[in-house]
Design brief:
mainly alpha, 2 helices, 0% strand, elongated
């Protein structure tokens, strides 16, 4: 199972891809694609910046 570092790298790579797609969508004035990119970015950022669950350290 991948560790936190590997998961974060994957999420940052996905954000990079969304940035490249967004640049093209803006140039082509494609609003539905821009809306979908914004939605996907929100989901990725939620995963990336979520707090880890607290566990009892006994």
């Amino acid at each position: 199972m991948p560790g936190e570092k590997e998961l974060n790298i994957n999420l940052f790579e996905r954000l990079d891809l969304l940035d490249r797609l967004e640049r093209v969508a803006k140039r082509e004035n494609c609003e539905p694609v821009l809306q979908e990119i914004a939605f996907e970015r929100k989901l990725i950022e939620r995963k990336l910046y979520q707090k880890l669950p607290l566990t009892d350290a006994e």
